[in-house]
Structure formats: structure tokens, C-alpha cells
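Agenda item 2: 2-(butylsulfanyl)adenosine complex prediction
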Amino acid sequence: MKMDHSLKEEAKMLQKELTVYSRCYHVLDDPVITDSEYDRLLKRLVEIESQYPELSVADSPTKRVGAPPLDAFESAAHSIPMLSLDNAFEDDDVHRFHARNIKNLGVNKILYTAEPKLDGVAVELTYENGILIRATTRGDGIRGEVITENVRTIGSIPLRLNTSQSPVPALIEIRGEIIITTRDFERLNKRRLGKGEAEFANPRNAAAGSLRQLDSRVTATRPLTIFVYGVGMVRGMAFETQARMLAALKEFGFPVNKHIQSGISIKEVLIFYKKLAEIRPDLEYEIDGMVIKVDRMDMQQALGEKIKSPRWAIAYKFPATQETTTILDIIIQVGRTGTLTPVALLEPTNVGGVVVSRATLHNADEIKRKDIRVGDRAIIMRAGDVIPKVVKVIKSRRKGDELPFEMPERCPVCSSQVRRLEDEAAIKCINVACRAQLTERIKHFVSKKGFDMDGLGKKIVDQLVNEGLITSFADLFTLDQDRLAALDRQAEKSVSNLIKAIEGSRLISFPRFLFALGIDHTGENAARLLSRRFDTLENLMAADKEVIENIHGMGEKTAASVVRFFANQENQRIIRQILEAGVSIQNDLFSQDTVSNHVFSGKTLVLTGTLETLKRAEAKKRLQALGAKVTSSVSAKTNFLVAGRDAGSKLTKAQNLGVTVLDETQLNQMLQE
Ligand code: IVH
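Presented output:
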């Protein structure tokens, strides 16, 4: 078969590029493309090389398990190569893996162990007669770097095996993944920012960078930990199954991940995959998939290995949460309080199943620190339900025509001068009459947690303000059929629904009213605290700063801003107007007596897992109505944890802290009391 010339060129290009990317990732801890893009390019190269084996040269990245170790550390060969894993991206790939195993073993049943695929740094720990004598990185799979001194600083790694329950193996090489939890990662980055040091792009890079310190005293300050999942060479001990091996490693004193299922069928493996994907956002560390391993060691041995990867295991990847895209433009959004926020417009990219086309850049300092320019290729990330952010730009991919960004000196909406407040990163438009600010204030006013004017969506608010139909909160209550019908594309039906929604919102609880006003630093929680302390708006407006500050749970910033807000004559006029437009504040919508007597009153609760009978938001609303505080993380201050189906790490933490755990039925019963 004659080879297509352009295919040869493509293979050469890919080999060259992937070699560079791999070195940046493995050796320099400075990835220039996302894992998913790397996987895609590599897959393409494997495809071409399998079609034309003569292109599969000795130094092709397809031949490599990893990248060569750094010269600065001593290197050592692994007694048994540390292999890589083949990837599965969909259920069918897993079915094929299983069918192949069945065929190769000539059996009709195989049981598996399924484990989270931890996103950290693979290491091998060698114990001779129970003592840690050496630790190495995976390196290129054949040879790794010797990092014994650094590993000894990691508290969760035993220096001597606990062998009280078993004989001491003459030699055992234990393999696992060194990680940094997401919370530790954020703290570490904050600390680095404070010292003017560069942030790490993600926990895996932070772990790799920390392990690659020539001075182990530096490593000692880093929050590294480990989960172990396998063995290399073992003398004087044998394991029948993966499950028994994990149990033995746990007994030796190693952390073994708790989200592991053993002795399960391939069908159960796939169910567990879904469960793992669901709890993934709640885990305290990053995982990028699930590793499926044939449980029986004799079967593993019979299946054997290929050059790069074993036949008895496969990695079923989760959709990536990081992707590479292009920054098409940087625009400015003007917020409710006048803050100018730069937002990156991105080439629309699918990140873990959701198409992302914008990412907030926070402020000018952030753009400067990350040196973000229009036209840059950038790594973007979406974790859990968090809004997308730009992790970093790829400077090595610059062509030279990328444009640095400057914050404007005038508000892009009203052209007033902008100002940078002292001690704040934010730049603000100080014209309170700015149309953008008014629009955002109105959106906040009518939102679910405020006046809840159903149907008055963002687009309609934009139109109402742009057409000059509303210039203040009070104007909302004077909107009638005729005025609304003048708007574009407003079907009569939705207009009458809108009018109903506005009518219905005239009666409002005190905390919602306060929230709707959009006072700086005054969210739902603060509004509720204020309304509980001061039964009426009049009382609150007359209150001193000291009294407000003394409310349990109230911050100093909020207190100052509340006092400032009500002292302002313009704000007093706006409130008068709203009340004159027929709004009535129901001070006793939730009677104080029933509230303060309830078991949940004044208590702090955390909701986790899936609730079956009522939505989380609904449960939260009802708890808050009873005077409870609902927070998102478990701490010693938590009074109750409500654990729904598939509750994850928060449940464990609550149990460890001795927090009272309620199930959904108990919650419902107590809510009704
Ligand atoms: S088993 C030959 N189990 O994935 C078996 N690996 O792509 C390979 N990894 O280098 C190791 N979690 O760094 C195994 N539960 C787990 C894992 C895991 C993460 C990493 C490991 C390995 C890479 C293979």
C-alpha cells in the first residue's frame, strides 16, 4: 500500500509535538495542553502508526510510558516496570475489555475490583524487612527518580510497616498515588500568592512540584498525602486477590481509598462508575476516572501485560474538567454595585459535558498576574458546579499578535469616570444612575430570593431599562398591560402572567425585602439575621452600628454597610417610593415564637447527598424559615448533617466529628414538629 505523504508529515508533526508536551508535563511540571487534548493527539498518532508501522520509530511518544527523570535526582530502575493503563471512554470499551478477558482466560465469569483513579503522582515505596529504604517516582516506567528523603516527610506514609498481624515480608514494593486535597491545594496557592510566588495550576502539579524539591525541608511544608493501590516485587508474602492485597496494605498502615468495590461483576462495575461520577464533586481530592482490575491475581498473571499496559486492568475515564480553548475577546460587565468585571469570551468548548463560552477573569490584577491576552490559547476549567475559570494561558503557543488587556478608564455603559477603591482590587463606576447598575439592581430585586417576580427574566429587564420604562424599583409596580405590551415579542399571555407575578409579589417577608434592596455584603443569611433582630424595617433603620455588629453571626463589614445604606437619603427615598407603590412587608410571615422554639432554630445544618422528597433548595428555605443556618461544609460548629442518598465525604467527616446525622425521613418529621 502506498503511503499518503500528508499522513507521514502528520505523524512526524505529532511525534515532535507530543514529545515536547510530554516533557513539559512530566519533567517541567508545566503542562502546555490539557490531558484530554494530549490523549486525543496520541490516539491519532497510534492510529497512523498502526496503519503504517514503518512510521513507528524507536523514539516515538507512543513507545514511551512517561518522560525521562530529571538529572538532578539519582535515578533507579524499577524491579518490575510501572506500567500505564489503557483508557476506556464509554461502557462499550469496558464490555470489550471484559469480553477479551473472558476469551483469553477461557472462563465464563470474572470478578473485578473497581477503584477511583487518583489524579496525583505515582510512586513506588520499597520496604526491606518492614523498613522504608527507598522511594522512587514512576519516571518513564522503567527508571524513576529516587525521592526517599522527600517521601519520608509525608506523614501518611509509614516508615516501618505495621506487621503486628502478619509476618514481615522480606521485601515489598508498594505503589500508590501521592496527592494534595483540593482544600489543601487552595490554601497552598493562597499562601504562595501572599508571598508573591506563582500559583500551581492544579493539585497534581502542586504534588509533583512538591515531590521534586531537592531540599526535603521544603517538601515537609507541603500538604502531601497518599493512597496506595498496588505492589511491585514482593518476597515472603503472596496475595490471592486485589481485594486481599488492599486489605493487607491497609493493615500495614497505609491509607487505602474507601470508595473501592471488590468482587463485583462487570455490570456492577458500570453501576459503580456512575455512582463514583456522582460523588466526584464531593470528594476532597481529584479523581479522573475509575480503574477496573481483574480481582484474582492468578487471572491477572494469566492475562499478562502488553509493552505499555497490563491486559488485566483498564482506566475508565470521566469527562475532562479542563480543556484548551481560545480567548476571542475580553469584555467588561458592570455589576449591581458598579464593579467592572472583565469577562473572557471563549471559543465555545465542551468541558465535561457542558459548553462553555465565557469565563470571569475577576479583576485587572488577575489578568496581569496570569498575563491573559486576547487571542491566547488558554486552559479553562469547570469543577463541579463552579463557574468556569481560566487556569492559565499557554505562552509557548503565542504567535505575537495577541493583545494585552487594559481596564477602561470610563464605564463602558455610561461613560462616567471609574475609580479604584483603596485596598480593593475592584474598579468601580461611581455613577449610581448608570444604566448597567440599574439593570443589575432590578434583576437582583426581582430575583427568586428577593421579590420573586416569576417571568420577569433578564432579557425583559434589559428591555424595560433600555426603553426607559423603569428608572427605579418603584416603577416596577406601575407596569401595566399597555406598557408591557409595547415590548418586543411579548405575547399577551406572558404579559398577563407577568402582571400577576408583580401583583403577587406586593406582599413580601421582611428578610426577602432586605435582600432585594441589594445592600452591599448583605445576602440571604445577613438579611435573615437582621430581620430576626429588628422585627420591623423602622426599627432596623433606626439601629446603631454597634447593635447590628453585636448580632451573632453578623460581620463588621455588613454592619457598616447596612448603616451606611439606611443613612443615605436617596435610599430612604427609594424605600418610601416602594412602600407608596403598595408593597407591604409582612413582619410576621414566620411568627417569631414558633421559630425560636423549634429544634432547628439557631442551629447550623449541612445538607448532603440526594434528597428524594424535597429539593435541596426547598429544604434549605424551610430550615431557614425556622431560624436555622444552612452552610455547605461540615465543621465542629455543625449541629446536624442531613444525609441523603449516596452521601459522601461530608457524611464521614460528620461522623468523625460526632455531628448528629439525620436521614431524610427524620428531617421531614422534625420539620413538621
Ligand atoms: S493501577 C498497571 N490504580 O494511573 C496498573 N493506577 O495510567 C497501573 N492511578 O501510573 C496502576 N489511581 O499513577 C492504579 N487506583 C489506581 C490508580 C492508578 C491512579 C494512576 C497511576 C498510574 C496511572 C496509569
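Discussion summary: The chain is about 35% helix and 20% strand.
Owner for follow-up: CH.
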